[in-house]
Amino acid sequence: xxxxxxxxxxxxxxxxxRTSPTAITAAVIAFICVFCAAFAPWVAPHNPxxxxxxxxxxxxxPPAWSADGRWEFPLGTDDQGRDILSAxxxxxxxxxxxxxxxxxxxxxxGVTLGLLAGxxxxxxxxxxxxxxxxxxxxxxxxxxxxxxxxGRALFPNAHETxxxxxxxxxxxxxxxxxxxxxxxxxxxxERQKEYVQAARVIGVAPLRIMRKHVLPNVLGPVLVLAxxxxxxxxxxxxxxxxLGVGAPPTSPSLGTLIRxxxxxxxxxxxxxxxxxxxxxxxxxxxxxxxxxxxxxALNPRLR
Amino acid sequence: xSLVMEPMSTSAASSAxxxxxxxxxxxxxxxxxxxxxxxxxxxxPRQLLHAVDGVSxxxxxxxxxxxxxxxxxxxxxxxxxxxxxYAPTRGRFTFDGQDAHAAYATAEGRQLxxxxxxxxxxxxxxxxxxxxxxxxxxxxxxxxxLLRDPQAIKDRVGELLQSxxxxxxxxxxxxxxxxxxxxxxxxxARALATHPEFLVCDEPTSALDVSxxxxxxNIMKDLQRQQGLTYLFISHNLAVVRHVSDQVGVMYxxxxxxxxxxxxxxxxxxxxxxxxxxxxxxKMHDTGRARTPVQGEVPNPLNPPSGCAFHPxxxxxxxRCKAERPAMQTFHGVRVACHAVEEGRIGV
Amino acid sequence: xxxxxxxxxxxxxxxxxxxxxxxxxxxxxxxxxxxxxxGQDATPxxxxxxxxxxxxxxPFIVQFWHFLLNAMQGQFGISLRQGxxxxxxxxxxxxxxxxxxxxxxxxxxxxxxPMGVYAALRRGSxxxxxxxxxxxxxxxxxxxxxxxxxxxVFAVQLGWFPSFGRGEVTALGWWTTGLLTAKxxxxxxxxxxxxxxxxLTLIMRLVRAEMLExxxxxxxxxxxxxxxxxxxxxxxxxxxxxLVPVMTITGLQLGxxxxxxxxxxxxxxxxxxxxLFIQAVTFADIPVMAAYLCLIALIFVVINLIVDLLYFAVxxxxxxxKAGGH
Amino acid sequence: xxxxxxSASDIATWDIHSQNNALQNGxxxxxxxxxxxxxxxxxxxxxxxxxxWTQVSPTxxxxxLRSGVKFHDGSEFTADDAVFSLQRAMAPxxxxxxxxxxxxxxxxxxxxxxxxxxxAFNPVLLNQLTELRMMSKAWAEKNNSVAPKDIKTQxxxxxxxxxxxxxxxxxxxxxxxxxLVLVRNPNxxxxxxxxxxxxxxxxxxxxxxxxAALLSxxxxxxxxxxxxxxxxxxxxxxxxxxxxxxxRTIFFxxxxxxxxxxxxxxKGKNPLKDVRVRKALYxxxxxxxxxxxxxxxxxxxxxxLVAPQVAGWTEGVHKRFPFDVEAARKLLADAGYPNGFExxxxxxxxxxxxxxxxxxxxxxxxxxxxxxxxxxxxxLVTYFPMIQRHEASIYMLGWGVxxxxxxxxxxxxxxxxxxxxxxxxxxxxxxxxxxxxxxDQIKVEMDPAKRTALMTEALQLxxxxxxxxxxxxxxxxxxxxxxxxxxxxxxxRIDWRLVKVN
Amino acid sequence: xSLLQVKNLVVxxxxxxxxxxxxxxxxxxIAPGEILGVVGESGAGKSLxxxxxxxxxxxxxxxxxxxxxxxxxxxxxxxxxQMRQVRGRQIGAIFQDPLTSLNxxxxxxxxxxxxxxxxxxxxxxxxxxxxxxxxxxxxxPAAxxxxxxxxxxxxxxxxxxxxIxxxxxxxxxxxVADEPTTAxxxxxxxxxxxxxxxxxxxxxxxxxxxxxxxGVIAETCDRVAVMYxxxxxxxxxxxEVINHPAHPYTRGLMSxxxxxxxxxxxxxxxxxxxxxxxxxxxxxxxxxxxAHALPRCTLDRPDLMPxxxxxxxxxxxxxxxxxxxxxxxxxxxx
Lengths: 303, 348, 326, 502, 334
Ligand SMILES: Nc1ncnc2c1ncn2[C@@H]1O[C@H](COP(=O)(O)OP(=O)(O)OP(=O)(O)O)[C@@H](O)[C@H]1O
Ligand SMILES: Nc1ncnc2c1ncn2[C@@H]1O[C@H](COP(=O)(O)OP(=O)(O)OP(=O)(O)O)[C@@H](O)[C@H]1O
Ligand SMILES: [Mg+2]
Ligand SMILES: [Mg+2]
Ligand code: NI
Known about the structure:
Oligomer: heteropentamer
CATH topology of the largest domain in chain E: Rossmann fold
Bound molecules: adenosine-5'-triphosphate, magnesium ion, nickel (II) ion
Largest interface: C-D, 53 and 52 residues
Number of strands of chain D: 19
Helix content of chain D: 25-40%
Structural class of chain D: alpha+beta
Radius of gyration of chain E: 21 Å
CATH superfamily of the largest domain in chain E: P-loop containing nucleotide triphosphate hydrolases
Distance between the termini of chain E: 34 Å
Helix content of chain E: 25-40%
Shape of chain D: globular
Largest sheet of chain D: 11 strands, mixed
Number of domains of chain E: 2
CATH architecture of the largest domain in chain E: 3-Layer(aba) Sandwich
Largest sheet of chain E: 8 strands, mixed
Strand content of chain E: 15-25%
């Protein structure tokens, strides 16, 4: 473990990481966020999803350092008496899970379809690209509304799991298009390259060429796009929650927290608004900065 | 000369009857027309580009055929046709008595692919930049299931690298960590991994300086001597061609215009284009002497000149050259497609 | 060229039919408008009667077919909420959205491109780092939050800009514009900035990345070797070569602007199509939603077409008549 | 003086009979007047375009019309207009049938008198008449607006975008979703304290933006402020909040029909059929805390299904079962669920004040007694069709009583579903023959005092049965500048005659 | 007086694992009207030398030491704007790939006119007239018509001619040509070289010609510099270097060339490979591959020293070591 880390730090990418203060800061912030989210049940002072522990009387307490604050709730409480700090951790857990899952899903779908379209071309390409056009016409919000509708009609009793499914599905359904387009573009270039033809001359089967030769070489931009997309997906999730198709209200995601906070903008209970927003910005910023750094680090000409 | 011929004569018994490689009337046309709707609306005809047009040649086992010609005359297309990257529009390519293109499509095609390999023009581009050399060289071994045991594969890769003058220690490096010449050698090692019998080399040394070029050419010659390899060798550099080949084919605008023994071709070129080409070679030891470049403009392959495609640039062209396309004919063991030669207007 | 346009328009129709089909397949799940029409007190019989009258009780395939038949005659149905032909509604709302999107796009381009160029030329300089980081705020914050924060600061605290609406509009025939009066500009500022921020970030980053690539090409090096001025090299040669990918994305994003406008328009009560759409969604106003989605599809196809035509204007290589040669 | 106000949505049409929508009806009332109207202070029915009325027979009401009333175009308001308007409300394309259901026909007696014939005795006819506004027959005929705008067809009538009534204000300009301007009618028949000469309405759908507009002074009055912002507004020197109890009661309904609940872990039986379980759920809810914390005082906890303004309400039925977690636990254990159970719980999230927050708080309270409610919230477009398909096990509903008569609620909510609006919102399908008998008796009882007593009895029966769990009467806050004077009405409507801008 | 003087040029790439010294103490000069050929092993630093002269080293590469003088004026440390005026006006450049050197989005006329107007005080019409003349000079037929065509509409050879026309547009005194014919086939190569030669002759411009092709060097150049591992190994008149190479590396290089006239079974080759930049041996960089290496070669780094008619950086030619050199001079070519 330590030695792999050491080896990584010694590689070219590792080196550029070590020498970039921005990357290190971003990585530290991202790590803290991910850690707190992943280990929320152990790290968080309260479990805001355990409804039986919520005390309505504790609602809207300000952060601990202000006059009415209580150290029990370091960042104050929201309108249901949830500890904001804990809610943030649990919420980030959902948001990050939704963000990562939807990005993974759209990467899988997008990359596969993009590869197929680019590699085989012809009617498959034309069909897939028109499909992209169709998908482009549906804003993520609408797709979410519609999928939520379908999902609820099909599984009237699967509430929470369904909500996540809806979020992930609708974000990835609109997200795969850009991966498909990017990958298709690079594949068109890549499949003309001689190393692909060399593999064909060797007698490697097309699907295998696609997987082993083309894929690693078109993945660079995809990886960078994906890191940016994680942040965007969290925001999309926030936006969807704003429109009421997000996570169930009893287990609020970061997005839902922001939406709730949105109602408190003018009320003077600023902590309900500010903290979720700050966390979202921190996550998005750190992931984006890491993506920026990675793009530069993976580009041998910039090294 | 006798040294060169020796390995061929050893294998001559096995293939005395048929040459290993036979290209018959190979043709490849590219459809570069505008999309259908455009053609209909703008009343344009279909646009066909005859990249290779009726090329025939044979190579005996253990021999080298060199292809020369201007940029864009179709040399690479011929190479790609032979290894099955393109299917021929017309014509046939027979390898060891077997129709190769029919075979490529079937399961036995794998077997054939093992026997025919190619070295690409650009050594860097033909190596997957994300693979280690060990994997690159081992790919054909794995793909054809020649070896399965990882240790055996490793040994064989080391052996191959050594045979092209690299160290087995280089296995763990990536292509970009090598110099141009070394990369070229890696792609040769890969091409040799399956013990091919026929190697198609597309400008394998164009990017190299003379010292590295010499190293690469020497390796190729050594291999030919040791393993009886057959080469199709494509190059711009006539000095190199002269060094490596047994036979030389001169191409012009998709067609073979002259095909002859190396010494015959260089000593007594017949086709006017061949002559011009030879005149254009810079001479090393007469410093400061001007040479005569080939006159005139390169014709547009989409709209080739009528008759003999070379006639607009040919000093010997007459009306017949403009109207009638010359066919390949054999004169004194040399195959030439030229009316002037046929009519004896050009002396030897 | 004509053939190209014709083919793309043909595809547009296909895409729109596909979009409409999918929409109708999904509309049965968006809810029931009848409750709004009859009020909460209506009896189940009245509700059922109304649903039947509106054709909502039919399978989606039948509803879709009716929609198609009507659409072919240029009719997109009647808004269930407002009882007005949808085409008329959309025509009323379209200018507002288009003005907003165009102003936002221009803002994003005018600010984003020079910033991107600068960040590429002075890679690593303090100012460009600031650009790169601050611009990330634009993609890190959800649009609605940005909008409300802008309102909070510039409308409530400072009182510089109005917090909602389009202000005065002038009618030019059927087209209404708010861009002829100072008040109109006053009203469009905040929504346009909100809408532009995301695009600005994207364009800036895109231009920067493309510039970094282009600046390393041989022709830029050669242009420098010829001693051309920096202006000519950076803006004449380099920028123009980044334009093709920038145009592709910007084109897609302009379509996206219209889609993103849903939220901005809601926040700023901008009387455009996005607001219309979101109200249609909360009302389950199916004809409006269907027409809107088709229109968005059409806009995307048209924008893509324009972008492709712009390619021809920018890149002479694409203009070449393949047969022509020389 | 100009009065600028705002709320979430715009009206959909100016055709008074095209759609039945509370906000729209309130705005229409500024331009079109009805025969009778509720007094804003007392909420008693008072004359408007009618001066007097007599119940000639159980099915015949004779109405005398006000004289000297002029439409905005100067023409006189006559019995023809009244008959025309009432018939228009009954037309097939009208959506005011909920108010005209009982009316059989309308007949002109003379120029100043009309007769309204009902199908049966209709105790709430006058209440219904408050929502039936008067339009000029001549104007409608001239402008192709005889029939109400049919929302199903293309043809747009003139009355859709234009308005011409007898009211104190006249329509000047209407840009849907942007701006609606009304100006004072100088020739109005009545006198009113209002000093407003122009009313500008701008719908703003985002609540934060709406509040921003109030804070920045762009509007004078917000009909539906964000409850979260009220403390801030109350403490703002330039602004004030006017609260008033709306005659709308928020309650939870429960599926008492299914033999096994969908999405519950109790198999083979329906725990909600057990009155002890229902009562346990009831007693686990701390309505006072919800009212104080979640509602910030915008809810008046109640044990009755109707608001105090409604006939039939008494202090007795208003009293809640006490909040008692222990008692609730015991009730559950008695019913055989000592560890509680899992149950589906659905709420709207954009219908009532803080609806989603209330449900969350209630979910947490139920969690205390072991009832694991799986909360799902959704917008009203999907919510109402969903509960009407009986898909929710526990659901939230708010019921307003435009007639100010408990029958309205009882018939819809607790009567076994049947014909003619019986139990049309009894989506939990509570059924008690005794209750049904009571309600059928109220329907035909002509003695007001006796009728009221019967209604109280029915309300009490509902409480005893815990057919529904009442929560609170909604308190509606209006936020406005300090210089605005309005009268808060229980139907959440502004009385335009009483608005003053100081 | 020489037109260009390069004195002790050192180019470095500061990098992660220390600084790479890609050019080490390179000195040479070019007289007006002279064509200097530069040959050498791939990676020897030929292109870097050219790039340093026109001041277009790609960062992080930098000139760490030494001077470059044009007509006696230092140009390696000129401010950006002044250097820009030197480029194009004083020093023209031609790069290897004719397609990528031209901006594909502008017609060649525009690019020519733009270059001319940047450097010469002429009107647009005059500039265009001049551009047409340049195209004619470089042998493009129907120049009046072709001037408005775009780069992709030209064949490779013609494109390279356009690039030459661009390099000549402001009549520079020096042209740095980095592998101008590598991508082209022999016949086009011949055309380009002929063109370059005539233009030099007519305009009196000096040329620094970088190439792999000894034939081209032999045919075109007056003098030739041979580079190896970031240093000049030998420099001298072209006939001398080719026929009587003094440095063992040059000798090896010459013998590697396949000869048109001589049939040989195996080409002569220099065994081994050029050292990597971060592992250049002490002493003479060529010593591991040199058949004649002296003990001293592994210790001290030789500078250029007279060796017959040329100058070579080899201890074999140290004054007094001439005897060694002549005895060690093996089976030299021709
Ligand atoms: N895939 C293709 N589609 C269309 N045209 C093609 C394709 N491949 C090659 N061509 C055309 O066929 C002709 C011959 O190309 P080819 O690559 O064989 O030339 P070449 O002799 O190898 O040239 P070079 O020496 O430059 O490598 C050219 O005109 C080229 O433009
Ligand atoms: N950006 C860079 N970073 C590090 N080293 C570099 C860089 N650019 C060039 N070099 C090194 O500088 C040396 C000289 O490079 P240069 O391009 O001048 O070689 P060259 O003589 O032109 O070779 P070729 O004949 O292959 O063009 C090479 O060894 C190369 O590895
Ligand atoms: Mg080729
Ligand atoms: Mg170079
Ligand atoms: Ni000699």
